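Hi there, hope your week has been kind to you so far. No rush at all, and the record is pasted right below.
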Amino acid sequence: MSNGLAMAAAATPAAMPTEAASAASGIDTQAFDRKVRAQDDLFQAANGAWLKATPIPADKSSYGAFEQLADQSDRQVRALVEKLAASPQPDGSVAQKIAAYYTSFIDLPAIDQAGLAPTQARLDGIAAIQARTDLARWLGENQGLSNLPVNLTVMPDPTQPRVNRVMALQGGLGLPDRDYYLKSDAKLRQAKTAYLVYLSTLARLSGESQPERAAARVLALETRIARLQWDKVADRDPIKTYNPMTPAELAKRAPGLDWPQFLKAGQLAEPELLSVRQPSAVVGLAGLVGSVPLSDWKLYLKLHVLDESAPVLPQAFRDAHFAFRGAALTGAKQALPRWQQGISDVNGALGEAVGQLYVAAHFPPAAKARMQEMVVRLLAAYRDSIDGLSWMTPATQAAAREKLAKYMVKIGYPDAWRDYSKLEVRAGDALGNSLRAAAFEYRRVAQRASQPVDRSEWEMTPQTVNAYYNPAFNEIVFPAAILQAPFFDMAADDAVNYGAIGAVIGHEISHGFDDEGSQYDGDGVLRNWWTAQDRKAFDAIGARLVAQFSKYESLPGKAINGRLTLGENIADLSGLQIAYKAYQNTLGGKPAPVLDGLSGDQRFFYAWAQAWRYQAREALSLQLLSVDPHAPPKFRANGAALNHDGFHEAFGTQTGDAMFKAPAQRIRIW
């Protein structure tokens, strides 16, 4: 489990005009909505003019600060990759692999001419399934290549985080979440209807004689899978999702799937132990493998393979893929430009190799040094916050300080780069390259089983615009690409940097003490280091935050799931609190200068709100309400600020202001 700062972008379009930040303060004052007071809506006051002047691009389902930086990162990576592709590279070199991977992906005439030939071997393998053992073998051999009903991975054991353990977990749905199959909501039903059309199109294009019937059979099977799956809230509980057992015990509890054959084909034969993340679901899914007619499973696998391969199949497949996964599910009006799809693909396949080029070109040492200084200040502020807690007993405070002292910090890029020498990339073989890259990555992960954990590894590439906390490593990680305006600006004053990237740092630190992360100690061990009294007090505060966010409607009649978003809301609230404290510490008791007519504290909160500037299409917003543990950005910006004493003091809120909250009602956790 890791906790990222932001949702994954559904798409990243061509460039939009960048913000015109004030040279004096670093705040984009041109983005302000002068008709809205920060006391009534901080997000709108900070971003209203920008929202009005910045339509969501046609090839995008959302747009905001994260997406703008992701676009910039993609353009920068494109320049590096196309420079490699412009001249011959040594055979077998990383440079040659990057260039060949990218140029193969964007060569649409070659992809169209190849037809279904590149995927025929996988389709033939599905057609050859004649027995349940064959099905188990196929499911094992295709781990990492497909989203299967039961997926395998290798992760640190939550109770022994220095040892890697095999994990089995639920999967296999073509729609974003079980809610799309099981709820009667009209918008979700509309998406399910679009999925049925998409499955029918894939069946027809691949030669099925009764495509509508084939699609209906696959949807019926997926609905049975959905009924078995755990929902997103249950899946957040690290105690309930840790279920170690031997392979023999699992085979006895979950008959129907030939587990020895499955694990062997998945390159994980005879693990000493494995953990089943959602045991009741995996038991039920194994039963489906053993009972659903093989003909239905073969149709299911065929259409899923075609769906996953569609971006590198002929145009009819690509068009159908966008009509469903782009337009129907996210509201995008047109597909991303092919070059940008290619950059995304090459980042996925050779991410750290590309990242090494990116860092050399775009991440100066001074930026890393400034970030390291800020992290030290944020950790010190968090330590002060722990010392000042009124609701926590001394014993648990001491344990919290001990955990904080053990935080590992990674900034910019890994110390050691990943080795891609054994990854084969062939010119002109877009689908083959994708499959080999996925198999290479799965093999790399599978080989870690029962081996010591390599704590130097990163879960994100340097060119990723995001950040995360990893409880097993007890680490906070900040890739290079997020360390740019509007989050981080070497030329901006401290108020702006602490309100933006400082709150990001604080957010990730706080994940170690949210409702999930707080169940791990400073060594990454899943254990209870709290007194019962303290945990009860913490849960009571969390319940108030759940209630606050559950009242917000992201869409008309569609409330945020306060329980699903609790961890991120705790991290936002606590991160903003300690970022503010760290900023105040930089002043040394002296008043901040007034810049652009704004006090230092006002600049701090405007920077916070502008970091969350964002707008999204309805279809994507609906999807994120079901699957995303983050609240929509507007509510993240306002929801944390209205609990912050500093916000109310900075803007002089009063009774009657929409964002006023009486001091006694403000939620304070860390």
